[in-house]
Amino acid sequence: MSVQLFTYEEVSTHNTRDDLYMIINNKVYDITKFVEEHPGGEEVLVDEGAKDATASFNDIGHSPEASEMLEKYYIGDVDPSSAPVKGGASNSNGEKSVSASPQGNPLRIIIPLSIILGYLYFRFFVKSA
Description:
It contains five helices and five strands. It is of the alpha+beta class and about 130 residues long.
């Protein structure tokens, strides 16, 4: 039995809630039916879908059960001769549906905000008591 190979470009065209592929560890998954069931919300999958989401998947620290769940959505492997697609791709209707906003770690906002709030709390509530 041969494994179907997908290029990064092919995966990038499956980028809507109704047709969503994702690459994790060089394996391609059709996660369309899982979008509504995802405990972290569907928006996360749509934002990370249609591309290699290995780093995001591993950074979250998914449970072994989550990794096992992937197997039922497995549809093939990434063609090793293909190259990752830069930027978001358009679907067959020419619509750009993958988020075009800059992706980043929310801690870059949360940590400085926490420091400022801690300083203000100390300055006005602890010191004046």
